């Protein structure tokens, strides 16, 4: 999503001497913010998919290579997994590039299939599984776990749901106590049991129906939870494998690509032609779509500066401005809470 934002910004302002090539491993666009509703509410699943052939208008000089995977990075070219017209080989040269590979996460937050049809089928299957479940365990007290619990309760009010979070506050300690208390009250009001300052041993269980039927899960404090469906709302990791393969020193201890916090240009001399945005890099602030969109605008603006100056050494005056503590967490279609900086509001 953030990569497309950067591509559209560049396409609208690049001189006619240049074009944008948008490379996407999937043959479709996927909307993760809507996926938690799509895996629960029948009929909503179609809303999270879009065709990539309409990113640029018909007849545009800009290109989308859908269903194409980048396999390696070079100083001024990338290698892809197949030859795609109008290119004569798997090597695609460029002046500047934006890396927006995001993070790895389990379905439904990321598509589960190689095609839109496969992923659509998976969402419908998960809808069926959730409908048949009687007791759900949500492992993770962040936005994903909270939102999933709210979506399930909005459609299936009779489901027993227990949400377990390791921290003392929902979402995270960096957010206000009011934000936490509003979300906690909202979850409890719809019948979700919330267990905080605790963890749960999943023993390799992944999101989905519990194999063999309902079983007991034990938390770190010894609490016993019965569940026949588990939703793992934790464990996402930055997808920076291409970056580390190109230069192991370009990745920090958390597995994120190291970029200049102002310009978002990679700090590695080997990746000087690259800018990084989103979950895969160590840009300042929260890893949210709002922040990623602001990063896309900053990175694209700096590339435009370099292109128009005709020099890779031109001063980069487009600084990324962290949107700050901005978070919206829905509890179904008619509830939730938001924090915008120091301001809090209920939805």
Automatic annotation (TrEMBL):
The entry's keywords: FAD, Flavoprotein, Oxidoreductase
Domain FAD/NAD(P)-binding: 3-281
Superkingdom of origin: Eukaryota
Family annotation (InterPro entries): FAD/NAD-bd_sf, FAD/NAD-binding_dom
GO MF entries: electron-transferring-flavoprotein dehydrogenase activity; flavin adenine dinucleotide binding
Gene Ontology annotations for the cellular component aspect, listed alphabetically: cytoplasm
Gene3D superfamilies: FAD/NAD(P)-binding domain (3.50.50.60)
Protein name in the entry: FAD/NAD(P)-binding domain-containing protein
Source organism: Olpidium bornovanus
């Amino acid at each position: 999503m953030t990569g497309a934002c950067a591509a559209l910004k560049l396409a609208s302002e690049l001189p006619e001497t240049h074009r944008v090539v948008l490379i996407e491993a999937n043959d479709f666009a996927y909307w993760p913010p809507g996926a938690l509703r799509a895996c629960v509410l029948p009929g909503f699943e179609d809303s999270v998919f879009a065709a990539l052939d309409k990113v640029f208008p018909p007849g545009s000089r800009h290109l989308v290579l859908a269903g194409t995977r980048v396999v390696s990075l070079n100083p001024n070219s990338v290698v892809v997994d197949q030859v795609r017209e109008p290119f004569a080989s798997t090597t695609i040269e460029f002046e500047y590039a934006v890396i927006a590979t995001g993070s790895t996460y389990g379905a439904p937050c990321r598509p589960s299939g190689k095609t839109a049809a496969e992923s659509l089928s998976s969402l419908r299957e998960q809808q069926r599984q959730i409908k048949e479940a009687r007791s759900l365990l949500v492992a993770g007290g962040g936005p994903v776990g909270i939102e999933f619990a709210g979506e399930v309760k909005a459609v299936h009010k009779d489901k027993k749901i227990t949400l377990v979070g390791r921290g003392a506050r929902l979402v995270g300690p960096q957010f206000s106590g009011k934000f936490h208390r509003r979300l906690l009250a909202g979850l409890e009001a719809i019948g979700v049991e919330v267990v905080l300052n605790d963890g749960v041993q999943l023993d390799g269980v992944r999101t989905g129906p519990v194999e063999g039927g309902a079983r007991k899960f034990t938390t770190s404090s010894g609490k016993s939870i019965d569940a026949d469906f588990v939703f793992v709302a934790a464990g996402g990791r930055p997808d920076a494998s291409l970056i580390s393969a190109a230069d192991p020193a370009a990745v920090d201890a958390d597995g994120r690509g190291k970029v200049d916090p102002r310009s978002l240009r990679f700090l590695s001399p080997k990746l000087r032609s690259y800018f990084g945005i989103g979950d895969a890099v160590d840009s300042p602030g929260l890893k949210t779509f709002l922040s990623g969109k602001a990063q896309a605008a900053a990175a694209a603006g700096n590339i435009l500066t370099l292109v128009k100056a005709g020099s890779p050494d031109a001063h980069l005056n487009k600084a990324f401005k962290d949107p700050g503590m901005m978070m919206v967490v829905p509890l179904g279609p008619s509830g939730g809470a938001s924090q915008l900086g120091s301001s809090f509001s209920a939805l």
